[in-house]
Amino acid sequence: MKYTNWQAFDKVVAGCTKSTLSPLFCLLIKDEFEQKEALHFLLQRLKAILGETCPQLKRVTPEELAEHKASFSLFSSHSLLHIQHTQDLNAAELQLLEEQLTHLNNTCILILTGKDLPTALCKKIEAMTAGVIVEIGDVKPWEKQSKVEEWIKSYAVRWKRTVQKEALQLLAKEFQDDRFALKEELDKLFTYTADKSDAPITVNDVRAIVCLSNKAIIWQLSDALLTKDKRLALAIVHSLQEGDGGGGEFHPLQILRYLRNQVHSVLEISSLVDDQVAPDVIMKRFPTMKGKSFEKNIEFARRYGTNDLIRALIAIDTLEVDLKNSAKDEHLALEMLIVSL
């Protein structure tokens, strides 16, 4: 049996008994964090089914598999064996593993984890009466942030916490490629805000506690500016200029250049919206904007409006020229620009 989503697989395992447990679970998951989490939840299910007699998981190599299968425990009716990193197994190891598949029984449960296995071996496992494969590939780049946002929500539920939308987006944007670090930061965030557990986690909580890079904060600045949240935008500009984001100080001209690029992109979208160009056609003009990112920029374009975006772009360009050609107070001038926009 093969599954391509965790929910369907988990439902089947939850309904098993000692006598109906599969002797083989194969978790082929591209994302290393999801792979580790899947193994954790599978073991929880197995412990619930096997009860107090559930043995400890024992890591083995294909060479050791036959020996461990033949052994038995005086303290448990089952054994749990684990072969990891299946994508790194060589031809000889894969051959040894394949030979053992026909001799499995549900008193010796074998768990395979890795990114992939040869197609022929996968088909043999699928053909087994009780062999189970969970195969989850990589998500598309434009779907990654949305998936991480959903994971943050579910993880917050385990802590009986909620996270505001803006804070959720900031965390997902910053840690979409490293959920191991994200989990550590969330644990820290929920622990340090335990005194206000009834309140949702805010952007200010995240910025005060989580180790963010300046890349994440400057992204947040453009969002604050385009939603006309001057108070938040000024706070972010201040932190960027003081180097409070953890990635070093940003020069005002660097911030202006970033803002110009963001405003220019939204202006292009706004012009197309004014010309009543269909959203799917607009999306083709911006291949790096997908899903929620595209929807967000469409909303910015509609909320800010073409005329105001043109004025904002002119103001940014004017200040950039002024800063290069005069002795203005750069930090003050940038803050005054934010207020005017």
Mean of residue pLDDT? Answer: 84
In helices, the fraction of residues equals 55-70%
Structural class: alpha/beta
Give me the count of strands: 6
Q: In sequence order, what are the helices and strands, one letter per element?
A: EHEHEHEHEHEHHHHHHHHHHH
Helix count?
A: 16
Instruction: Tell me the radius of gyration.
Output: 27 Å
Roughly what fraction of the amino acids lie in strands?
5-15%
Which residues form runs of ≥5 with pLDDT under 50?
244-248
Shape: elongated
Distance between the termini: 58 Å
Instruction: Characterize the main sheet.
Output: 6 strands, parallel
- What strand order characterises the main sheet? 1-6-2-5-4-3
Essential attributes:
single chain; 341 residues; alpha/beta; 16 helices
Describe this structure in words.
This protein has 341 residues and is of the alpha/beta class. Helices cover 61% and strands 9% of the residues. The protein contains 16 helices and 6 strands. The protein has helices spanning 6-14, 32-50, 62-70, 91-101, 119-127, 141-158, 165-175, 179-192, 203-209, 214-226, 230-242, 252-274, 279-285, 291-304, 306-325, 330-340; strands at 2-3, 24-29, 57-59, 79-83, 108-114, 131-136. The chain has a 6-stranded parallel beta sheet with strand order 1-6-2-5-4-3, with helices on both faces. Helix 3 (62-70) links the parallel strand 3 and strand 4. The longest helix has 23 residues, at 252-274. The radius of gyration is 27 Å and the shape is elongated. The model is unreliable at 244-248 (pLDDT under 50).
